[in-house]
Amino acid sequence: MPSRTYSLSLAALLALFFLPGCGNNTLNPFCGSARPAPLIGSLSPSTITFAEVQQGDTLIVNGSHFVAASQVVINTTPLSATVVSDQQLKVTLSSDVISGPGTVKVSVLTPSGNSGDVGCTSGGTSSVLVLTVN
Description:
Shape: elongated
Mean pLDDT: 81
Distance between the termini: 86 Å
Structural class: mainly beta
CATH class: Mainly Beta
Order of helices and strands: HEEHEEEEEEEE
């Protein structure tokens, strides 16, 4: 009986075994550097005076999956944050982004980076918490 030789390219093997689960980072070996979507659980403080905002007080955002590229979004304005750990961010408040008393929407945005072109999910926006400004 004659033997047959089959040949598959590396790209074909990857497409066959790893990439069909687009967005399934556990199956795709190229997703090791994908950024996780941030999660937020609490703000400290959760209530602040507008005078404290004008003085540039610090807001602490507690949660998980924070990375160096994560930003704190105040209403619709993304602000650079200091990453204390993968569970805590600090950001300085100002009257440039909070114009007066009221409720302020706070979320965390982690940009996707460059892993989306290989079928990886990466980054995202957290849920929203409310900061009360008196």
